[in-house]
Amino acid sequence: MRLRPKQVPSIKRTLMRVHIDLFAIDNKVLYWAESVGPLSLLEKLVLALEDRRFFEHNGVDWRAVGRELAKLLTGRRVGGASTIDMQFVRTATGFREKTLRRKLYEILLARIIQFRYSKTVILRSYLACAFFGSHIYGIENAAKKAFAKNLAMLNDEQLAEIAAMLVYPRPLRPSDKWMHKVQCRAGYGLRWKGRLEQRFKKIPPRE
User: Which residues pair with 136 in a beta bridge?
Assistant: First the structure.
């Protein structure tokens, strides 16, 4: 069997890859999302659980990166330090590879989209296509699958459970153990949302 020669890094190929991936991201962007109004409870819960400094960073939370590096150096369990922006990039482009090179590329794209879209558009576009479980993409589909209701009909606790599903996606056959994890994280989100309410009020309406 003849092996294919390894490709030498090329600036042209890299720029083409960036261009293609930016097109894929643009196809997932909801340009009208900025005009919907202030943040909803679900959006606040997602920020409380996933990215509390979302409106303060430019695609990369370097404080979180530093924290995770410190954990790595001390032998503790390391998280991803991914921001909402990076998660949107990953979801929109279909990235699956878990390597340092891929993470750095996600950071690059997350920085680029800061100049193309507002933070509110990035957040709402991400939630419209995010993975919430087996064959479940987007917050509306998550609400219908989990509670057989439209998103607007859910109460605070149910909305918190939807937000928690970003970390604990719904399996094909939900178990009591999975439900317990979701409810614990949902409760945590509701508690944190209250603490962050003052911060949310300072967010410009068209940020």
Answer: 133
